[in-house]
Records
---
Amino acid sequence: MAVHAHPDDESSKGAATMARYVADGVEVLVVTCTGGERGDILNPAMDRPEVKENIGKVREQEMARAREILGVRQSWLGFVDSGFPEGDPPPPLPEDCFAVQPLEVASEPLVRAVREFRPHVILTYDENGGYPHPDHVKCHEVSVEAFEAAGDPDRYPGTGEPWQPLKLYYHMTFHEERILALHAAMERVGLESPYAEWIKRFEDAPAPRWTVTTRVPCAEFFEIRDKALLAHATQIDPEGFWFACPMDVQREAWPTEDYHLARSLVDTELPEDDLFAGVREKVCL
């Protein structure tokens, strides 16, 4: 189970990993917390009045295409996008949005989903949300709550039979080591790297709290990842940053998607190359 804040997050974080496990016969469910109704349109070709007026429906249709490309199941928690508050000081969040919901209210449908789907592994964001969008931070909070509560019969009564997931991972998609490797690889082949600004931010940022514990080889599924990204046409510019690094360069420089193992109820040796390390010895997948 991969828990994400908005439609398109599943395609930018861990999509090749999911496609790899689908190809291996693993059942994969993407849970999308909000409909992305307050997201900006980031592709100039889609910045049209009829798209803006129906952005919620458009993003729902985009998600349907992306999940078909990835071969995953997908469900909505049904919360409203919080938007990204900007300003100094930032404005208050909308009263109806996901990020302001009490933890138990926001977590209840995810606990229900965990108990129904019965995943062994859950993917989510760290406590900073990967970046500090309020919906990403809330997504982390509800994912941790569901991981810890779904197996307890005394918590969240009426949401199904208890089920305890075995491993919880945080996405480590945009960590410094990977970005530096892609940057160097592009320069080696004489291409202009789009990562210079990222590298400057790394130089000014504090040391990361979480380390990469798990690198999943999935380079052969990068094309599927990119097709899923392009399905989110309001969010992804085909001429933009996401596709600046050629596929062959990516595959050679960094052929994995990376994670931090945040919780584990099974024995496993680090580093890992499989999200199901330790689980395979406990259950038949």
Note: The chain has a mean pLDDT of 95.
---
Amino acid sequence: MADLAGSRHALPYVLNLSMVFTELPLLERAEAARAAGFTAVEYWWPFETAVPDPADVDAFVASVEKAGVAVTGLNFFPGDVAGGDRGLVTWTGREKEFAHSVASAIELGERLGCRRFNALYGNRIDGADPAGQDKLGLENLALASDAAARVDAEIVLEPLSGAGKYPLKTAADVLKVLDELGRDNVKLLADLYHLAVNGDDLDKVVSVHTGRIGHVQIADAPGRHQPGTGTLDIEGYLEKLQTAGYRGQVGVEYKPDGPSADSLSWLPFERRGLA
């Protein structure tokens, strides 16, 4: 068993390779993560379209298998993130594209053994009725829930910061959607950075809502860099989550302040391969 001396919790870490090691080409990042000591990784959607070229998918799968890491999380296709898009779940007129995205992600997840999928809710659209968008969101989340259930997987939904038109800012915003949806395999993704930046009550989130959390992600605030670069008591909140019964993984999803390998010095090597 790894030495946990100096750590306030025993939760396992997974490295998000859509944020860390991005100085490397996509197909080289899994090997870099394994060399850094991680046995599990997660990605956003690693392709530019909802239905990627099969050759690109094969190359991606091969890179993961060669590295010998597990993929524990994937996003559904979110649209043009660089252009400001934040998901298709509530995007009127792109229902078929979302359905194709779900099918593509579930198929890739089956190949990789991944059983967690992040469904970004989507921005408010100028001229569209917010209530209509939310109704579509419930329909699309139900579709995703059904598809995930067929492979014993779960969907997570997260609040975001830094996206003015994205309506889910707090844990309560997400939980309201989950209550209306009523699906056991759709849960809250508690990204401590986004919640903190949005002014949410992290103590309440980690003590009251732990049972509804499907995944946790971290970055320090402000700045969204590695732990220790800001003021967020990340270790303390992870300890509280574990005490409250959370037994899942912690996604390391920050923008490295400096080279990615150097930015991982906050996490002892022996703590990186527990997942």
Note: Residues 130-149 form the longest helix (20 residues).
